Amino acid sequence: MNVLVLNCGSSSIKYQVIDIDENGHRLTAKGLVERISLPEGVLTHKPAGKEPYRLQTPIPNHTEGIRLVLEALTDKEHGVISSLDEIHAVGHRVAHGGEFFPESCIVDDDVKEKIRSLFEIAPLHNPANLEGVLSIEKVLPSVPQVTVFDTSFHQTIPAVNYLYALPTEYYEKYRVRKYGFHGTSHKHVAHMGAQLANLDLENSKIITCHIGNGASVTAILNGKSYDTSMGFSPLDGLIMGTRCGSVDASAITFIGEKESMSYAELNAMMNKKSGMQGMTGLSSDMRDIDDAYESGNPKVITARDAYYLRIKKFVGAYAAEMGGADLIIFTGGVGENSSDLRKSVCSDMEYMGLHLDNDINDRTRGENVIISTPESMVKAAVIATDEELVIASDTYNLVKGLA
Predict the structure, then answer these.
(1) What is the spatial distance between Cα 257 and Cα 262, in angstroms, rounded to a whole number?
(2) φ and ψ at 273, to 5 degrees?
(3) What are the Cα distances from residue 161, in Å, to 46, 73, 318?
(4) What is the full DSSP assignment across 249-288?
(5) pLDDT score of 118
(6) pLDDT tens-digit profile of 209-256?
(7) Does residue 402 carry a pLDDT above 80?
(8) What value does the mean pLDDT of the chain take?
(9) In the chain, fewer beta carbons within 10 Å around the N or the C end?
(10) Mean pLDDT over residues 8-12, rounded?
């Protein structure tokens, strides 16, 4: 079955085509549509075994962007399928499923309406995600669609961990609570990590660290999400590229009053101007931060040390919550590629039975490998995340029963 996987952002579309069945899977193409609604859009298409293809043209909306993707997929020179009939299903990443969706599901009118009802609490992501669904309906009206939610995996978190210490009426009226994100990634790497470490997933204590421009840590108890660092929105928890993470709310109201900032301006400041960008005044990209760290930039040294330490704090807290840990997993663009980050987080953890193998850690980038020593009672591992494969797998499993 050929599954088209779509991840629609406000001005972009990431996509993959994955040929999947009971015996395995094969990536046949992937690509990116950028600068949607801007004067000059860009499509970058990478078919397996062929030369990449790049197109610059105005792309006014997501429907046009998806139409260009489908043209690229069926093109005689750089295509990977002969006709659109060979696309058997479409799987969508949707950021926020609220309390509605503990599992992935086939799209129908009720699903679309519930995604739309969550626009208010996910204004940056859900509208674009729904736009992708509606666009596919226009260009491939007979193809079944599946939605896979970032929040679904975290619906097992107990109330003691998802409720905020606010007046109960705000949960009852507006469903203000911790939801958590990156669930697709945390779920995938926990399964892969348990296999690599020879653990019984359903009888295990795993801490997964998804560290990229957005970042979160999750406590996974017996295969289920038990606690996670992101909250009502992806803003909470770790220091990120441009997000501040956990901060005293009174500091924000104080700044807002002093600077006469609106709620929208405060929200933009916390989400887009804070984190490593705000602390360093240099960049939100950890590659730039690493270069400046080595050159001795004092602001960068403080910021990166704080970035690493915040991860370590959550790892320690979640080990305490679960009564220990069997495995700590690093994933995401930074988690998979930064040996310095992993070394910092795992340092001085011998008291809880974690011993890092520095030689293995130093040479590990983006591959699935144990980076702790053989005698380490708590294992550490790097696992490459593959959210698109999870989306394709869920889509395949749901759609195959419709045939």
Answers:
(1) 9
(2) -125, 10
(3) 42, 44, 11
(4) HHHHHHHHHHHT--HHHHHHHHHHS-HHHHHHSS-S-HHH
(5) 94
(6) 999 989 999 999 999 999 999 999 999 999 999 999 999 999 999 999
(7) no
(8) 96
(9) C
(10) 85
**Annotation says 150 is catalytic:** yes
User: What is the C-alpha separation between 41 and 31, in angstroms, rounded?
Assistant: 14
pLDDT at 38: 87
Q: Residue with structure tokens 């005044």?
A: 281
Residue type, 274: S
As a whole number of Å, the end-to-end CA separation of the chain is 11
pLDDT at 11: 84
| Active-site option among 150, 326, 386, 394 | 150
Sheet of 379-382, strands arranged across: 224-228, 215-221, 205-211, 327-331, 379-382, 369-370
Euclidean distance between CA atoms 5 and 23, whole angstroms:
19
| Predicted TM-score (pTM) of this structure | 0.92
| Residues 81, 46 contacting (CB under 8 angstroms) | no
pLDDT exceeds 90 at position 4:
yes
E strand segments, 62-184: 89-94, 105-106, 145-149
Number of H helices, E strands in the chain: 15, 14
Residue among 155, 274, 172 nearest 224 (CA): 155
Q: Between the CA of residue 232 and those of 97, 175, 206, what are the distances in Å?
A: 12, 9, 23
Structure token pair of residue 75: 């093109």
Per the listing, tokens 């030689």 go with 359
C-alpha–C-alpha distance, residues 286 and 130, integer Å:
31
User: Residue 342 and residue 371: Cα distance in Å, rounded?
Assistant: 9
Q: What are phi and psi of 352, to 5 degrees?
A: -105, 10
R_g (Cα) of the chain, nearest Å: 22
